[in-house]
Write a structure and sequence with these properties.
Elements (H helix, E strand, L loop, with lengths): L2 H22 L17 H8 L50
């Protein structure tokens, strides 16, 4: 068997084994009271095994095709930043000692 055929066989075997492996690891039984870990990628198993995520949207665009016209972007001038920090208008005294 040549190299391409062996790669095709390996990929086909991997694809055919994904669904049974996903069904072999069921999600947590959340309907039974108790402690279950929500961070074990059960949502990925449900997405792989369910056909709910594979559907065609029947939404028709009410606006129709939209024409996008590129326009030049006018760059603004460089912004100036003051070199020295602004001085405060009110003067404050140091805190009183706790004695």
């Amino acid at each position: 068997m040549d190299r391409r055929a062996s790669i095709v066989v390996v990929l086909l075997g991997a694809l055919l084994s994904l669904a049974p492996l996903a069904h072999a690891s069921p999600p947590d039984a959340t309907w039974i009271p108790g402690f279950y870990d929500d961070a074990d990628y059960d949502d990925v198993v449900l997405a792989v095994t369910s056909a709910v995520t594979v559907f065609e949207s029947g939404v028709i665009d009410p606006l129709g095709p939209v024409v996008v016209r590129p326009c030049p972007i006018i760059p603004s001038g460089p912004r100036t930043v003051p070199a020295d920090p602004l001085e405060s208008l009110s003067c404050r005294a140091p805190p009183l000692p706790l004695s």
